[in-house]
Design a protein that fits this description.
The structure holds two protein chains of two kinds. Chain A has 27 helices and two strands. Chain A is mainly alpha-helical. Chain B has 20 helices and two strands. Classes of the chains: A mainly alpha, B mainly alpha.
Chain lengths: 645, 503
C-alpha cells in the first residue's frame, strides 16, 4: 500500500479562487467590523455573494470557450494554490476545479444565495446581531463554494465541515433559547457521525487509490485499480457521510430540529444548498459507486426511496409550517438519492436545482408569513393569507405547484425524469415508491398551501398581517419565476441540462416514446389526486368531519406520524442512554474508585507506615529538596563505585 | 551568525533572568513582571535564531554544542536539536511570554512565582535539547521541581493533594528511568552518558524489554497514558492558569518526546514488540478520555481529560510505524500545545472574572461576553479537529498513517473525533449559550487588551498551521522518518512497504 505523490495541477481557472474569495472576504470583514458597519453589513454581505455569482458567470464563459469533449476528452479548468499537506509520498494540494458539475453548483449557491441574502436584509432588519448574521451567512457561502470547487476529497472536506460549522452557528443563532442551542449541537453531532464514515472513506481511498483527487479516484475505479470490494467499502463509507449531511435514513433526525434557526438559514442551508452536498458528493464520485462489487447504488436508491416515502408521511401529520417544509426537504433529497441510485446522475442534479428554487421559495414564503404573524408557525392558526399578502401568496403558489409536479412547473420535469429513470432502470418497486411519494407530497403540500393561503382569512389574534417588504419580495418574485420556468432548462426534446452535464456525469437512461408519456401522465394523475384529497379535507365544506373520521380510522398510524415515528425516542434508548451510562461508569467507577482508589490506597499505605506523606505535606519544600538530593547522592555513589572499580 | 550558539543561549537566558530577578526587591511587583516578560521575550527571540538557522532537510542534530563536563564519568554537556525537538523548543519559548501575561494578576509571592516560571522554562528547553542522558535527567527533574511549587504554592483549594500526586507519580516514573539510564551507562562498552554514543548499544532482548519498560513508565506517566493519568486532572485543576498552560502544552509533551527520542531509538526491538499494547492503550485513552471528559462538572477537569484523549492520538501516531503517523504525531504535539494552552487561558479568564470553574455556575455568557465566547468556540473547534485549523492536520495524518499500517485500528480512533465534538460543544453550550440567569454572569466583562495580546499569537498559529502546515512538516519529516525506520527495521512487524520510506 503506497500513496502516489502528485505534483500541483496546472493553473488555468482564472476566476475560481475569486468565486470563493469574495464571500470569504465578506465574512472576515463582517466578523471583525460587523457591529460598526451596522446596516451596511447586509449590503456588503449580499454584494460579495453577487460578485461571486459574476465570477461564476465568467468561469462559465471560460469553460464553454474551451473544447468540451466527452469521456477522456472532457476538459476542466483547475486552479492551484499550494501544497497543503505533504508527508512522504502522501500529499494533498489546495486546488479547485471548474467543470460542468461544479459550475452548476456555483450558480445555485451564489444565485439562490444572493437572493436569500437580499431577503435577509429585510427579514433580519430588527435583529441585534445583524452584522454577525451576515458574517456567518457569507462564511457559509464561502465554505459551500469550497465544497463544490475542491478538486479532491480533502479540500471538499474542508468545505464540508465548514458548512457544518456555519449550520451549527446559524441554527443556534438565537442561543439564549436552550432549545435552539440543543438543536444546533444535535445537528453538528449527528453530522459528525456521518463525517466519521466520510473520514474512514477518505483514509481507505487515500491508500487504495493512492490519491484523493476526484479525477484520480474515478480513474482508478474505472480502470479497476481499486478492487471491487475496496470500492464497495469506500462507496459505502462515502455514502454514510452523504446520508449525514443530506439527512437521509438513519441520520435525518437533525434536520427537523434545525428549523430552530432563522428562516433564511433554513431556506439557504437546510433546503437549497448544504443538504444537497451529499447528492453532489455521490454524483462527483459515481464511478467509484459503479465499480463496487456489491450494488451500493441500489442501496443508495433504496435509502433514498424509503426516506422519501417515510418523511413524506411525517410531513403529512405536522402542523408547524417550517417542520412540514423540513420533512418535505428530506423527502425531496430522498428523490435525489433515488435518482443517483438508478444511475440518473444528471437528473439528480437537475432536481437539486429545481428543488433549490421552489423549496427556498417556500421557506422564504413561510418566513414572510411568520414575519407578518409575529412568528406564528402553526398552520391551524392561519388561513386565506393570499388575500392579505398577495406577493407571498402568489409566489408560494408557484412553489406549491412546482413541488406537486404540475405541468409546466419546474418540479414536474425533474420529478418526472427521476420516475422515468427508475422505470428505465427496471426498478419498478422504486418507481412505485416514487409515485407514492409524489401523491403524498401533493397531499401534504396542498394541505399546507390551501390551509394557509386559501379559504377564509384566519390569523392569530392581535396580529396585523402585512405583505413582504421590498427586499423580501425582491427574493420571492425571481424564485417564483424560476420555480415556474426552470423546467425549460431540461425540456424534453432539448434536454440542454443533461447534455451540459454529460462530460462529467454521462448520459442517463430514460424512458422513451409512449412509456415516457404514460409515466408522465401517471405522475400527473397522482399529483392531481393528492391535491384533490387535500382540497376535500381542508377546504371543502364538511371536510372537517371527514378528516376526523379518517384520523380515527388511521388512529395509531397518525399518532406514530405525529410522534415522528418514534425515531428520536428509539435513538435515545438504544444509543444515547447506553453511551451516557458508559461515560458515567468510566467516570464514577473506573476513574474514581478503581484507579484513584488504588493510587490513594498506596499513598495511605506508605503514609500509614512511615508518616512519609504527612511529613512531605507539612514541610514539602524542604523534604522535596532532600529527596532530590538523596537521589543525586545515590546516583553519584553508584558512579563512583563503577569508576573506582 | 550561525556560529552563534543560539540553542545554548536560549536554554540559559531564562535561568540567568531568574537570577537577575532574584536581585529585584520583592515588593517591586511591576518591575518583576516586566523583567520576566522581557526575559521570556529575549529567550523567544534567541530561539527564533534557532529556527532561522535550522537546516530544513536534515535529520541530524543541529545547532548544539558538545563539551566535556565530568570526563571521568563520561558526562558531557551535549546539546542539539532535530526536527522532533525543534518545534518543542519553539513551542516552549513561544508560550512563555504569553504565560507571563497570563500571570500578570498574580499578587501573592510575586517574585518566587516568576523565578519558578523562568526556571521551568530552562528545564523544559533543556529537556528538549539535551543529548547526554545525565544532562537530560537533570533537566527532566529540574522541570519537575518548579512545576511542583507552582501548583503547591499558587494553586487552588486542593493544591497540596494535587501537587503531591503530581510529584509522586512523576517521581516514581523518573526513578525507574534513572535506574535504566545507569544500567545503560554501564552496559555501554565505553561508559558514557552521551546519547549518540549509547545509540546502537547491543542489548539482549529481555534487557531491552526491561529498560524500555523503565523508560516507558516514566514517559507514560507524563503523557499520560490511561491508566496512569489520574494525577493530571488534579494537577491541572489546582494549578494556576500559567501552570495549567505549561503543563498541558509542554510538560505532557516531554513524555511523548521521550518516547520518540529515547524509547524507540535506544530499544527498538522492545518497542516494536510492544507496539500493539501501546497502540491499544492509546486508543483506549482516546475513547476513555473523551467519555470521562463529557461527564466533568469542572471546566478545567474537562479540558484535562480532553488532553488524555488528544495525547492518545499523539502516542498512536508515534507507534503506528508509518511516516504519516509519526509526523502527524509530532505536529499534533505542537497543535495540542496551542489549542489546549489557549483553552486553559480562556478558562483562566472566566475564573478571574467569576471565581469559579463549575460549568453549572455559568450559562448564557455568549450574551455578556461575546468575544470570549467566540474565541472559546474557535479554539474548541481547533481542538475538535475542524479542517482549516491546526488540529485537523495532525489528527488526519495520524489516522491516515494508522490506516496504512493497521486498517481496523483506525475505526475506534476515528470515533474519538465524534466524541470530541460532543464534550466540547456540550461544554460550550452550557457555559456560553442558554439564558443569562445570574447577575454576575449578566455583568461579566468581556475580554481586555492584555488578554487579546496573549491570545492573538495562539489564534494566528492555529489558523496558520491549519492552512499551511508545510513549513512545519518539511522540518519534521526527515527526523520522523529516521525514527520510523528504527521502529520498523526488523521482521517483527510484517513489512507492507511503508509509505514514504526511503530505501
Amino acid at each position: 500500500m503506497t500513496f502516489a505523490a502528485s505534483t500541483l495541477p496546472t493553473d488555468e481557472a482564472t476566476f475560481a479562487q475569486l468565486i470563493f474569495g469574495a464571500p470569504l472576504l465578506g465574512a472576515v470583514l463582517l466578523l471583525f467590523f460587523g457591529k460598526r458597519l451596522g446596516k451596511l453589513s447586509g449590503i456588503i454581505g449580499s454584494a460579495t455573494v453577487g460578485i461571486a455569482f459574476v465570477f461564476g458567470v465568467l468561469s462559465f464563459m471560460d469553460l464553454t470557450s474551451i473544447a468540451t469533449g466527452h469521456g477522456e476528452n472532457a476538459r476542466v479548468l483547475t486552479k492551484s494554490w499550494f501544497t497543503w499537506i505533504e508527508v512522504g509520498d502522501f500529499n494533498v494540494h489546495m486546488s479547485l476545479v471548474i467543470d460542468q458539475l461544479s459550475i452548476v453548483m456555483v450558480f445555485v449557491i451564489t444565485g439562490v444565495g444572493f437572493l436569500i441574502h437580499v431577503y435577509s436584509i429585510g427579514y433580519m432588519s430588527s435583529e441585534e446581531n445583524y452584522g454577525r448574521f451576515f458574517a456567518y451567512l457569507n462564511l457559509f457561502i464561502a465554505a459551500m463554494l469550497l465544497l463544490v470547487l475542491g478538486d479532491n476529497l480533502l479540500v471538499m472536506f474542508i468545505g464540508w465541515e465548514g458548512v457544518g460549522l456555519c449550520s451549527y452557528l446559524l441554527i443556534g443563532f438565537w442561543f439564549e433559547d436552550r432549545a435552539n442551542a440543543t438543536a444546533a449541537k444535535k445537528a453538528f453531532v449527528v453530522n459528525r457521525i456521518g463525517d466519521f464514515s466520510f473520514l474512514l472513506g477518505i483514509f481507505l481511498l487515500a491508500v487504495s487509490a493512492g490519491t484523493l483527487t476526484f479525477a484520480g479516484i474515478n480513474e482508478s475505479a474505472v480502470s479497476g485499480a481499486i478492487g471491487g470490494s475496496m470500492a464497495t467499502v469506500g462507496a459505502l463509507l462515502l455514502f454514510g457521510g452523504a446520508a449525514g449531511k443530506s439527512a437521509q435514513i438513519p441520520l435525518y433526525v437533525w434536520l427537523p430540529d434545525a428549523m430552530a434557526g432563522p428562516t433564511p438559514v433554513s431556506a439557504l442551508i437546510h433546503a437549497a444548498t448544504m443538504v444537497t452536498a451529499g447528492v453532489y458528493m455521490v454524483a462527483r464520485t459515481f464511478p467509484l459507486f459503479e465499480a463496487a462489487s456489491f450494488d451500493v447504488l441500489l442501496l443508495v436508491a433504496w435509502v433514498g426511496g424509503a426516506t422519501a416515502v417515510i418523511t413524506a408521511i411525517v410531513a403529512a401529520a405536522e402542523y408547524d409550517i417550517k417542520k412540514i417544509l423540513a420533512y418535505s426537504t428530506i423527502s425531496q433529497l430522498g428523490y435525489m438519492f433515488l435518482a443517483l441510485g438508478v444511475g440518473a446522475y444528471s437528473i439528480a442534479i437537475f432536481h437539486l436545482v429545481t428543488h433549490a428554487f421552489f423549496k427556498a421559495l417556500m421557506f422564504l414564503g413561510s418566513g414572510s408569513v411568520m414575519h407578518a404573524l409575529d412568528g406564528e408557525t402553526d398552520v391551524r392558526r392561519m388561513g386565506g393569507l393570499r388575500k392579505v399578502m398577495p406577493i407571498t401568496g402568489w409566489t408560494f403558489m408557484m412553489g406549491w405547484l412546482a413541488i406537486c409536479g404540475i405541468v409546466p412547473f419546474s418540479g414536474f420535469f425533474s420529478k418526472d425524469a427521476i420516475l422515468a429513470g427508475a422505470w428505465a432502470d427496471g426498478q419498478y418497486v422504486l418507481w412505485g415508491l416514487g409515485v407514492a411519494t409524489a401523491a403524498l407530497t401533493a397531499f401534504y403540500m396542498s394541505r399546507l398551501y390551501l390551509r394557509v393561503f386559501e379559504g377564509g382569512v384566519v390569523m392569530p389574534e392581535g396580529t396585523h398581517a402585512h405583505d413582504a417588504p421590498p427586499t423580501m419580495a425582491a427574493a420571492l418574485i425571481p424564485l417564483g419565476i424560476l420555480s415556474l420556468a426552470a423546467g425549460a432548462l431540461n425540456f424534453p426534446g432539448g434536454l440542454t441540462f443533461e447534455h451540459f452535464l454529460e462530460p462529467v456525469l454521462g448520459e442517463p437512461e430514460v424512458a422513451h416514446g409512449l412509456t415516457a408519456w404514460l409515466l408522465g401522465g401517471a405522475a400527473t394523475v397522482v399529483a392531481v389526486g393528492g391535491i384533490a384529497v387535500a382540497w376535500a379535507l381542508y377546504l371543502r365544506a364538511g371536510g372537517l368531519q371527514v378528516r376526523d373520521r379518517t384520523e380515527r380510522m388511521l388512529g395509531p398510524a397518525v399518532r406514530a406520524a405525529r410522534n415522528k415515528l418514534y425515531v428520536d425516542r428509539t435513538y435515545e434508548t438504544l444509543i444515547l442512554q447506553p453511551g451516557r451510562d458508559l461515560a458515567v461508569f468510566c467516570t464514577e467507577v473506573v476513574d474514581r474508585k478503581i484507579i484513584d482508589g488504588a493510587v490513594n490506597g498506596t499513598g495511605k499505605l506508605v503514609a500509614g507506615s512511615s508518616e512519609l506523606l504527612r511529613r512531605l505535606q507539612t514541610g514539602y519544600v524542604r523534604n522535596y529538596a532532600a529527596a532530590f538530593l538523596v537521589g543525586v547522592v545515590v546516583v553519584f555513589s553508584i558512579l563512583i563505585v563503577r569508576v573506582a572499580a | 551568525m550561525s556560529d552563534f550558539p543560539f540553542l545554548d543561549v536560549a536554554i540559559f537566558v531564562p535561568l540567568g533572568g531568574a537570577v537577575l530577578i532574584g536581585l529585584i526587591p520583592k515588593d517591586r511587583h511591576d518591575v518583576i513582571r516586566w523583567a520576566s516578560l522581557f526575559v521570556t521575550l529575549a529567550a523567544f527571540a534567541v530561539t527564533l535564531g534557532v529556527l532561522v538557522n535550522f537546516e530544513t532537510s536534515s535529520a541530524d542534530f543541529q545547532l548544539g554544542s558538545q563539551a566535556e563536563w565530568i570526563k571521568d564519568w563520561g558526562i558531557s554537556y551535549s546539546t542539539g536539536i532535530d526536527g522532533i525537538s525543534l518545534f518543542m523548543v519553539m513551542l516552549t519559548s513561544f508560550l512563555m511570554p504569553l504565560c507571563v501575561l497570563v500571570s500578570w494578576r498574580i499578587e501573592t509571592r510575586v517574585k518566587p512565582y516568576f523565578i519558578f516560571l523562568l526556571a521551568l522554562e530552562t528545564g523544559m528547553l533543556g529537556v528538549f535539547s539535551a543529548l547526554d542522558m545525565f544532562l537530560f535527567y537533570l533537566f527532566w527533574e529540574a522541570s519537575l521541581v518548579p512545576m511542583y511549587f507552582l501548583i503547591g504554592m499558587w494553586g487552588y483549594q486542593n493544591r497540596l493533594y494535587a501537587a503531591m500526586k503530581f510529584f509522586l507519580f512523576t517521581l516514581v516514573g523518573s526513578l525507574l528511568m534513572l535506574v535504566a539510564i545507569l544500567f545503560l551507562y554501564f552496559a555501554a562498552g565505553d561508559p558514557s552518558f552521551g546519547y549518540r554514543e549509547l545509540l546502537g548499544t547491543p542489548l539482549a532482548l529481555d534487557t531491552q524489554r526491561l529498560l524500555f519498560l523503565a523508560f516507558f513508565a516514566s514517559f507514560a506517566v507524563k503523557v499520560p497514558l490511561v491508566p496512569l493519568h489520574t494525577w493530571l486532572p488534579d494537577a491541572h485543576t489546582e494549578a494556576p492558569t500559567a501552570g495549567s498552560v505549561m503543563l498541558a502544552a509542554v510538560l505532557l509533551k516531554m513524555g511523548a518526546y521521550g518516547l520518540i527520542r529515547f524509547g524507540i531509538p535506544l530499544f527498538p526491538d522492545a518497542a516494536r514488540e510492544l507496539v500493539p499494547v501501546i497502540m491499544g492503550l492509546a486508543i483506549v485513552g482516546i475513547i476513555y478520555g473523551a467519555l470521562v471528559a463529557a461527564m466533568q462538572k469542572d471546566l478545567k477537569r474537562l479540558i484535562a481529560y480532553s488532553s488524555v484523549a488528544h495525547l492518545g492520538f499523539v502516542v498512536l501516531g508515534i507507534f503506528v510505524g508509518s511516516l504519516q503517523g509519526m509526523s502527524g504525531g509530532i505536529l499534533q504535539m505542537v497543535n495540542h500545545g496551542l489549542s489546549t494552552g489557549a483553552l486553559f487561558m480562556l478558562v483562566g479568564m472566566l475564573y478571574d472574572r467569576r471565581h469559579t470553574r463549575q460549568i453549572a455556575d455559568f450559562g448564557g455568557l455568549g450574551k455578556s461576553a461575546p468575544i470570549i465566547a467566540g474565541l472559546f468556540l474557535f479554539v474548541a473547534l481547533s481542538s475538535i479537529g475542524l479542517p482549516g485549523l491546526n488540529g485537523f492536520v495532525g489528527e488526519f495524518l495520524i489516522l491516515v498513517g494508522t490506516y496504512v499500517r493497521y486498517s481496523w485500528w483506525v475505526v475506534p480512533a476515528t470515533f474519538g473525533v465524534v466524541l470530541a465534538a460532543i464534550y466540547l460543544l456540550w461544554a460550550y453550550q452550557r457555559v456560553f449559550q442558554g439564558p443569562l440567569t445570574s447577575e454576575p454572569n449578566r455583568t461579566m466583562p468581556d475580554i481586555n487588551v492584555r488578554e487579546v495580546i496573549m491570545l492573538a499569537p495562539l489564534l494566528a498559529l492555529i489558523v496558520f498551521i491549519g492552512v499551511y502546515p508545510k513549513p512545519f512538516l518539511d522540518r519534521i519529516n526527515p527526523s520522523a522518518e529516521k525514527v520510523v525506520r528504527q521502529l520498523n527495521d526488523s521482521s517483527v512487524i510484517p513489512q507492507e512497504g511503508l509509505a514514504g520510506e526511503v530505501p
